[in-house]
Amino acid sequence: MPGPDLPLVFDAPKRGRPPTHLADLDRAQRTEAVRKLGLPAFRADQLARQYYGRLEADPTAMTDLPAAVRATVGQELFPTLMTPIRHIACDDGTTRKTLWRLHDGTMLESVLMGYRDRTTVCVSSQAGCGMACPFCATGQGGLDRNLSTAEIVDQVRAAARAVADGQLPGARRLSNVVFMGMGEPLANYNRVRDAVLRITSPAPEGLGISQRSVTVSTVGLAPAIRRLADEKMQVRLAVSLHTPDDELRDTLVPVNNRWSVEEVLSAARYYADVSGRRVSIEYALIRDINDQPWRADLLAKRLRQHLGHLAHVNVIPLNPTPGSEWDAAPKPVEREFVRRVNEGGVPCTVRDTRGSEIAAACGQLAAEG
Question: Which CATH class name applies to 219-351?
Fold first, then answer.
């Protein structure tokens, strides 16, 4: 099925396609793939149980697979998609950022975070980003390419395996996935949708994480938001709004020149109505740019009008990037902004930020790597 009608500026540069991996394939495709290798059909289910159920991506460790075929299976169905270059931890080890090198040398990031009540991985959907938001480290670097379904899924599998192996203190299992890493998920629509299905389907079809524990973030590609609603999934939608007025948003989020605040919030309401789920409104609070009291009031007013009780605002203290002119709003300004949005009838909280000392803003580590 073709993707939504997006302007060509969002297209990823043409690069070598990642090799096909088991996680790119649905059940029928897996069965056909093992048959082409001369293996009985039941091996497809066996391999899927290893990958999704046991979180094993190395066929040499799959002892239920005949030793004579492990190398071939590895080459054809488990090519190396990502190689970890660096792990950096902070917050007493409960936040771990990983820099990955992909098969073509492209750099990628994911972040694993342990909280008291959940363990979350923040994954990337593109290498780089074409949305060009000026305060975002990834946006400053531009778009490299779209990630394949398997490259997205394997970030989640690797995180789940790290948790299972005890690499995150106090964490027992991976419970949540957020598409808030590098890239605009809805600009890589088909692969992100397929990745969500792999992540949320029960083993051996997928990793078995609840759809309600998956969040897909977007800067506001309105047609794609509506299309995601029509998928009838239960994932949480997060809209990176960052300001309630078109004049400023045209600068902060250039895609606003294509789809206005009105159109984005209308699409978000459609998603909320179809899914029955509250929409998260992401708001990076930037000193002297979008932190004025009147913008807090206008934000509450517009969200009440469009989303009613189906909105929650996450205020994000900006994590400045090296050399950037952008800085976080002072704490008293932040508190007043949150107070006014709440007083305006819309729930508003400050997001728990993690890992500023390990270049946790998306794209920072890749830029340094």
Answer: alpha beta
- What pTM, to 2 d.p., does this model score? 0.92
**242 in a known ligand binding site:** yes
- Tokens found for residue 294: 């009147």
Do the domains spanning 22-77 and 219-351 agree at the CATH topology level? no
Which uninterrupted H or E stretch holds 187?
A: none
Q: What is the pLDDT of residues 63-78, one digit of tens each?
A: 999 999 999 999 999 9
CATH architecture of 22-77: Orthogonal Bundle (1.10)
The answer to whether the annotation marks 348 as part of a ligand binding site is no
Percent of the chain with pLDDT over 90: 83
Locate the domains of the chain by residue range: 22-77, 80-209+357-369, 219-351
CATH for 80-209+357-369? 3.20.20.70
Helix-then-strand count for the chain, H and E: 12, 12
List the catalytic residues: 109, 362
Q: Is 110 annotated as contributing to ligand binding?
A: no
Reported as a single tens digit per residue, the pLDDT across 130-170 is 999 998 888 888 999 999 999 999 999 999 999 999 999 98
Flag whether 231 is marked binding: no
Long-range contacts at 331-340 (CB < 8 A, ≥ 24 apart): 333/285, 333/287, 333/291, 334/285, 334/291, 336/293, 336/296, 337/285, 337/291, 337/293, 337/295, 337/296, 338/296, 340/293, 340/296, 340/297, 340/300
